[in-house]
Design a protein that fits this description.
The complex is a heterodimer of chains A (397) and B (254). With 397 residues, chain A is mainly alpha-helical. Chain A is built from 16 helices and two strands. Chain A has a two-stranded antiparallel ribbon. Chain A is globular, with a radius of gyration of 22 Å. Chain B has one domain: P-loop containing nucleotide triphosphate hydrolases (Rossmann fold), CATH 3.40.50. Chain B has a six-stranded mixed beta sheet, with helices on both faces. The chains are: A mainly alpha (397), B alpha/beta (254).
Chain lengths: 397, 254
């Protein structure tokens, strides 16, 4: 053997920890720590912040924009952005309300039509991008205006359509909570599946003579998951419980996470986001990947709009206004998904929206007005963006 | 060429890949003209030449990225058409180009198997891929600190090992290395040359282009000099002197 031995990290545990933190290899853990910290600060400022009543409201309010942020996470993975997600959600809300109320369609059909509208918008974006190579922030900005115009046209002269309170969508989004027994069963099943898959993976790795996690480390992870889920379900259960719409959001995040990390499509998305040319040469169907991500993003945005209509029991001209787009993009970035493409996690949609929503709710409890909320959220976003840039620099060094 | 260290059979077997009278122009510029070239199994052939001598064009023609205007490409003595890199790969010819075409954000295993992932139950089978990755890198005796760090964290030589390992996954017969030492430091070059020797031991036919004479002289069996798109001499690497090569490259009479 000639040549030097490659060096991984210079120092011991502390140095390795710092190196991983600096280059963003720690994943979502630091973001979760920030969320906890923000919650503790807000609790110190107002003792009703961590009340179960407030947390139930907070989770319910975060679902609609969180689902939209999940789509933004996907486009950011490609190093692209969709600035029209708010407008698409507004259009979807309008289609649901006008379709089911004014036109008398069955509600389910109206929901499917709204999702289809989002799908078509995403397909158009994907085709424009792959065929014409127009930067996505420009044509989605154009899309924002066009789709916003369509929203106004669909809503018609009144500009606002109310959904009946007995409609299943409204009940699902407003008053449906998982029965506590069901919630505990879900927790048990999720923890069980997680533990089983971890242990199965570990035994396969050992059989293949690959480095495997220690049994203690696996059990620790399973334990942490069980405690976090158990604490959330238990505490929210002292009030109304886990809202159906929040459960839907978290379930979607988990599915997207699995798809991004463990399927070929997810691998392709990260490859295209990392280096388009290298991905193309490796045989990745780049165009199909790009189009599918724009479609997924717009469809999720539409779903977010449907949920927003359900929560409000109405669709109006303000549904999906510009600040919805801004909040969704901010949540995705604050949650730790890089703007430079190829790095991030579906969980950043959940963590990011919880951070943004906590700040918003917490400052409202303190009777601070919109100007302060915007200011604080903006500063948090700026810090997140700076950290993203610094991590990128540390990785390239 | 009779003085070359040869296996005992005496008669050389058919080359794995050959060029016969190959020319290629880009518009009015003749990049290469009337090139003859053979690469055998268990052999490292170096192609050297000044900038613009036609080295990259040559690699392009062999890898299927370019098609000749005249002349033919032969694999095992039979003329073939290499319409694109995929066609070349199907015949067991792979190229590792100057830019390695790795995704810096993906880890070593993810890069090695990009586009040809193992699937189990609808999900990626990381265990099988990681085991195979260790096997291939082990064959190259390539040392990488971890298979699970992003490629961005690896040194230039380590990245090159990963790119070559990816080329090796399909068990190719011919490996084309375009300017492999261009961006490497001294110790990394030494490491890389050991790796090339290992490829030869494994029976691959290896073609390296370079403009560093010392690097290729250390590892090549034969050195082909290109000058202004034409072959300007073919040398036994053990016997040729640096001055002879330099003269052939620059066209200065000795």
């Amino acid at each position: 053997m000639t040549g030097p031995t490659p060096v991984v990290a210079p120092a011991g545990r502390a140095g390795a920890f710092w190196q991983r933190l600096r280059t963003g290899e720690m994943g979502s853990l630091p973001i979760a720590a920030v969320l906890v910290l923000i919650c503790l600060v807000l609790q110190a400022l107002n003792h009703s912040f961590l009340s179960s009543d407030n947390l139930v409201n907070l989770t319910q309010q975060s679902a609609a924009t969180g689902i939209i942020a999940l789509g933004v996470v996907l486009t950011l993975h490609l190093g692209q952005i969709d600035l029209s997600v708010g407008a698409v959600s507004g259009l979807a809300a309008a289609v649901v309300a006008v379709g089911s109320v004014s036109l008398g369609w069955p509600l389910t059909l109206a929901v499917l039509a709204a999702l289809a509208a989002g799908l078509v918008v995403g397909l158009l974006y994907g085709l424009v991008y792959t065929r014409l190579r127009v930067p996505s922030f420009v044509f989605t900005l154009a899309g924002l205006l066009v789709v916003g115009g369509m929203q106004l046209r669909v809503l018609g002269e009144t500009g606002s359509v109310n959904l009946p309170f007995q409609a299943w969508l409204v009940r699902f989004c407003q008053t449906a909570f998982l029965p506590q027994a069901v919630a505990w069963v879900v927790v048990a099943v999720v923890v069980g599946i997680y533990a089983a898959s971890r242990l199965h993976d570990r035994s396969r790795r050992i059989a293949a003579e690959l480095a495997a996690q220690s049994l203690g480390s696996v059990l620790l992870r399973v334990g942490v998951l069980a405690v976090v889920l158990g604490a959330a379900v238990g505490y929210l259960g002292t009030n109304r419980g886990v809202g159906a719409v929040f459960a839907l959001f978290v379930g979607l995040v988990a599915v997207v996470d699995l798809v991004l990390r463990r399927t070929r499509w997810g691998r392709f998305v990260r490859a295209v986001g990392g280096d388009v040319e290298a991905a193309r040469r490796a045989g990745v169907p780049v165009r199909r990947v790009l189009v599918s991500v724009f479609v997924a993003c717009s469809t999720l945005a539409a779903l977010g709009g449907v949920v927003a209509a359900g929560r409000l029991a109405a669709a109006n001209q303000d549904t999906g206004a510009v600040d919805v787009t801004l909040t969704a993009v901010a949540a995705a970035v604050i949650g730790g998904t890089s703007m430079y493409g190829g790095r991030g996690s579906a969980w950043s949609a959940l963590l990011g929206i919880l951070i943004v929503q906590s700040i918003s709710t917490g400052l409202t409890l303190l009777n601070l007005d919109l100007s302060v909320r915007y200011g604080v959220t903006g500063i948090v976003l700026a810090v997140a963006v700076v950290i993203d840039a610094l991590q990128r620099r540390a990785r390239e060094a | 060429m009779s003085a070359m260290p040869e296996p005992a059979e005496g008669v050389r077997p058919t080359p794995v890949i050959s060029l016969r009278g190959v020319s290629r122009s880009f518009g009015a510029a003749r990049a290469v003209q009337g090139i003859d070239l053979d690469v055998h199994a268990h052999e490292v052939v170096a192609v050297v030449g000044d900038t613009g001598a036609g080295k990259s064009t040559l690699v392009g023609l062999l890898s299927g990225a370019l098609q000749p205007d005249e002349g033919s490409v032969l694999v095992d003595g039979a003329a073939v058409t290499l319409a694109d890199p995929a066609a070349a790969r199907a015949l067991g010819i792979v190229g590792v180009f100057q830019d390695l075409a790795l995704c810096a954000n993906l880890d070593v295993v993810q890069n090695l198997f990009l586009g040809q992932e193992s699937i189990r139950g609808g999900l990626l089978d990381e265990v099988v891929m990681e085991k195979e990755a260790w096997r291939v890198l082990g064959q190259l005796a390539a040392r990488v600190p971890s298979l699970r760090v992003p490629v961005a964290a690896l040194s230039g030589a380590q990245r090159r090992s990963v790119a070559i390992a990816r080329a090796l996954l399909g068990e190719p017969r011919v490996i084309l290395l375009d300017e492999p030492t261009a961006s490497l430091g001294l110790t990394q070059v030494a490491e890389f040359l050991t790796l090339v020797e290992r490829l030869r031991e494994r029976g691959h036919a290896v073609l390296i282009t370079s403009h560093s004479l010392t690097d290729v002289q250390a590892v090549a069996d034969r050195i082909v000099v290109l000058r202004l798109g034409r072959t300007n001499g073919e040398f036994d690497a053990d016997r040729v002197t640096y001055e002879d090569l330099l003269a052939a490259m620059t066209g200065v009479a000795r």
